[in-house]
Amino acid sequence: MPRAAHDRFTAALAALERQGRYRALRPRAGIDFASNDYLALSEAPAVRDAVRAALDDGVAVGAGAARLLRGNHPAHEALEADAAAFFGCERVLYMSTGYLANFALLTTLPQRGDLVVFDALLHASGKEGIHAGHARRAKVPHNDAGAVEDAIAAWRRGGGTGQVWIAVESLYSMDGDTAPLADLMAVADRHDAMLIVDEAHATAVHGPDGRGFAAPWQGRDNLIVLHACGKALGAAGGLVCAPRLVVDYLVNAGRPFIFSTAPSPLTAVAVRTALRLAAAEPERRTALAGLVGAANRLLAGRCGHPAPGHQILPVIVGADAAAVELAAALQQRGFDVRAIRPPTVPEGTARLRIAITLNVRMDDVAALFDALAAQVAPLEAVS
């Protein structure tokens, strides 16, 4: 490696280590309070059986090409048809990751001369798609529908004449709170805007039959919804649910879609099976809701922290090093809890992100918050 590059990377990594932000890959260990496998479908026997049967039937491991070449497989199309019927939209486009789907949406649909208004806490994939695109952009305070409307009005007063796009999450991945979708939909209607909702952490968990928080508006021609396949559905990929015209345009103009090898047909089989299980087994959501309710009560009652009410529970610590120290203490007690630091979250808000899934039992939840309560008080006393 050239000396200049070597020195640059070494210095950057050393700076991250000093700041308490150095990251390293490590194997799974401890009770799962870190994954997004909310319904425990990643290892569901029915999903395994479906993939095994597909292999026995000769379904290939890899697609072998982009979907516009030879990579389009009946398994992709079967998943898209089932997902469109389940979520209640005209068309679905399956892409290999949620990140890629977000990036494709926001680099392809908004054009030069358009405006994208986005929530300050939008996923990194959405922000990077917005910044890589050619439209004007306006970041607004978190969950403030009035600020969205003000940004649109200010842009129009300044001469903006293009299409307006509003990009939000329905359930925010680091704060665990929900977007005011009814208010945002009303803003979109008033300003002839398109609303893009990332349901990544709501898919299969929230809304009627697990169809997400945007389900009441699904099928409208000014709504695009992204559903994740790598979280509660336990596999991988992203499902873009949109009007037929939007999907056709993405297939023809979305470079991240056009130039990416298609997802594995076996993964499509896994997602399709998981989607059917999520629909057919509401008891999974009922069991998860019981764990989530208990976790929120314990977070507020035992630890004195605000409880967001959903399956993502942030414990704001503040300093990066303190968050890492607290996570390490819990890991030593056998709980897989991770510290989340900037730039993933804003400066000064390093935190634990506790995720509640069906991979844990009620006893595990109680034990985690007993351990957390024992650790939080000393840290607060020091601060």
Q: What would you note in describing this structure?
A:
- This protein has 383 residues and is of the alpha/beta class.
- It folds into two domains: 21-41 and 282-382, Aspartate Aminotransferase, domain 1; 59-279, 3-Layer(aba) Sandwich (Aspartate Aminotransferase, domain 2).
- The protein contains 14 helices and twelve strands.
- It has helices at 3-18, 45-56, 67-71, 74-87, 98-108, 124-132, 145-157, 181-190, 244-253, 255-258, 265-280, 282-303, 320-332, 362-382, and strands at 31-32, 91-95, 115-119, 136-140, 164-169, 194-198, 223-228, 238-242, 312-318, 335-336, 338-340, 350-355.
- Strands 2-8-7-6-5-3-4 form a seven-stranded mixed beta sheet, with helices on both faces. Strands 9-12-11 form a three-stranded antiparallel beta sheet, with helices on one face.
- Strand 5 (164-169), helix 8 and strand 6 (194-198) form a beta-alpha-beta unit.
- The longest helix has 22 residues, at 282-303.
- It is globular, with a radius of gyration of 22 Å.
- It starts with a helix and ends with a helix.
- The mean pLDDT is 95.
CATH superfamily of the largest domain: Type I PLP-dependent aspartate aminotransferase-like (Major domain)
Record the strand order, biggest sheet. Answer: 2-8-7-6-5-3-4
Kindly state the number of beta strands: 12
Structural class of the secondary structure composition? alpha/beta
Largest sheet: 7 strands, mixed
Rg (CA only) = 22 Å
